[in-house]
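Handout for the seminar on molecular recognition.
Each group receives one record of this type.
Step one: identify the two inputs.
Step two: read the structure output and locate the region that could contact zinc ion.
Step three: write two sentences on what you found, then compare them with the reference statements printed after the record.
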Amino acid sequence: MVRISIPTLPSTPLLPPTQLSLLPLNLASQHLSRFIQDGKGKTGLITGAGVSVDSGIRAYRGKEGHYSNPNYTPILYHELVENSPRGEMFRSRIDWARSFLGYPPVRDARPNPTHIYIAALQVLGLAPKHITQNVDNLHPKAISVIQSSFPSTFPAPPRPTLLELHGTLAKVHCLEHRHEQSRDDYQQELADMNPVWNEEAKEAERTGRRPRTNPDGDVDLRGVDYTSFRVPGCRICRERGGKEGIVKPNVVFFGETLTPQVRDQSLTIASEASRLLVLGTSLATYSAFRLVKQASESGKPILIISTGPTRADGLKGVEKMDRRAGEVLRTYLNDVLKNQTTPEYQAVKESLDKGVIKLPPDVEGPRAEG
Ligand SMILES: [Zn+2]
């Protein structure tokens, strides 16, 4: 006898992508609400460069998947660490010089409202674990904004899990022993060793004539003589009297692979999640796409809110809202926070308007998501 089984309907029905993208904001917010509710605190978050555009950080890729800045050639890992005069030239005279001038705007960037909303999902336990492809340190800053809003009588809970898949510009490490130090400290060392460049950088800050920067803190300089720029080796190696390791920003470059620890951690977070909420990313990098693909193959629901095409469009279980994540999150959070008075909710309520919108000076036309 053939047993006929009636498939159970998922509690959040899948809508065709066009229909989902055209929902009015309140219905889009309700759809997100059901998605998160059905996740029962095990919704995993994956975010990308599209989230940071409003903080003046330029997205790598625009609507059609091209680099937003056509003149930008990303630094390649093999160039940075090449152990030869050519590698040395790349490191000291080009990469670090550009990075030295390009870092202050990244250092000073503030989280925008969308960063705060995403941190709110984490702090409220709605989607506690978060994997980001962003290296701009704005997600940690957003969590700090909410944590600092907790009343002194009710200390903030421990920071929620945030994995920076491609590293962070807030740190550097040496290639010899992977000694880590803060980028701010290393920036100071660079400034001390290169007083003329430091004057140039200060002048740029004074006049607001900041160079164009890309999301990795790199800056595009043409016709500049890099030969005068000096790059210190690892301070920790030096203090221990060993060979000074080459210092590298703690970010994954194009052509470089993730460390096994980070890769494993990302796979663990994604596999422990019951569903994935993907925000502001085209998932163009394989390290992030792999997590979504794996969730799709395991039959997990996936909701993507991002403008433009993504690499995961059309995968099984993927729902797509082609719109900016921030507006949907804001509407959803307003609803969630209504009538809630616990310290967590109060702290989040107070933080919602602390995001700062600052567009990069030369963004034209529709804003890009990465
Ligand atoms: Zn070292």
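Reference statements: Confidence is low (pLDDT under 50) at residues 1-10, 60-74, 363-370. Residues 170 and 183 are 5 Å apart (CA to CA).
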